[in-house]
């Protein structure tokens, strides 16, 4: 089977409903978004603990999430990362595990494409890379992988009950050609609200 056929044959859930499944059960967790998730999450959530400041910072969201998790050990942090972004910083998997950030969940939205830059296939899709396998090799105590929306919607509300840090791969369909990143207002006002929500002076 060719790589293209393998990618098309794998079951994949729709991207926005996958995010909506998480948004529906989110409570007081910090949610860090980047790339495709940064485009779609604000349509589903306007929570003051949405860390929506890394829209195109490939590879950096997991370590920003780690910093927040270490600074706020009593609060859960969820990072919504892309598969292309994960490729940019695989070392983050080892760093997060070594830091023992038990309150951190890293979700990789794997659509096999660099969708934001034009829909090019990622080298991970070509190589049939196993992101969950990387996390297991790095020693993450909880590694989960989902192909279907039904299974993910059942698991999402119980996600933070698993030992942390947690690594989740969601195999999702591409959004399509309509890429729009909405403006959420002045950065200074948003940061002030975020700091207030964290209880930081």
Report strand %. Answer: 15-25%
CATH topology: Rossmann fold
> What's the N-to-C terminus distance?
57 Å
- Summed over residues and divided by their number, the pLDDT gives a mean of 86
Estimate nothing, just give the exact number of structural domains.
1
Q: What are the secondary-structure elements, in order, as H or E? A: HHEHEHEHHEEEHHEHEH
Unreliable segments of 5+ consecutive residues:
1-8
CATH H-level homologous superfamily name: Thiamin diphosphate (ThDP)-binding fold, Pyr/PP domains
Strand ordering within the main sheet: 2-1-3-4-8-7
CATH architecture: 3-Layer(aba) Sandwich
What can you tell me about this protein's structure?
The chain has 201 residues and is α/β, with parallel strands linked by helices. It has one domain: Thiamin diphosphate (ThDP)-binding fold, Pyr/PP domains (Rossmann fold), CATH 3.40.50. 41% of the residues lie in helices and 19% in strands. The protein has ten helices and eight strands. The strands form two sheets. A six-stranded parallel beta sheet has the order 2-1-3-4-8-7, with helices on both faces. Strands 5-6 form a two-stranded antiparallel ribbon. Helix 2 packs across helix 3 (35-44) and helix 4 runs parallel beside helix 6.
Question: What tags apply to this protein structure?
Answer:
globular; disordered N terminus; 201 residues; Rossmann fold; 19% strand; 41% helix; two-stranded antiparallel ribbon; six-stranded parallel beta sheet; alpha/beta
Helices and strands, with pairings:
Elements: H1 3-9, H2 15-23, E1 30-34, H3 35-44, E2 50-54, H4 61-71, E3 77-82, H5 83-88, H6 91-99, E4 104-110, E5 113-114, E6 120-121, H7 123-127, H8 131-137, E7 142-146, H9 149-155, E8 166-171, H10 187-198
Parallel strand pairs: 1-2, 1-3, 3-4, 4-8, 7-8
Antiparallel strand pairs: 5-6
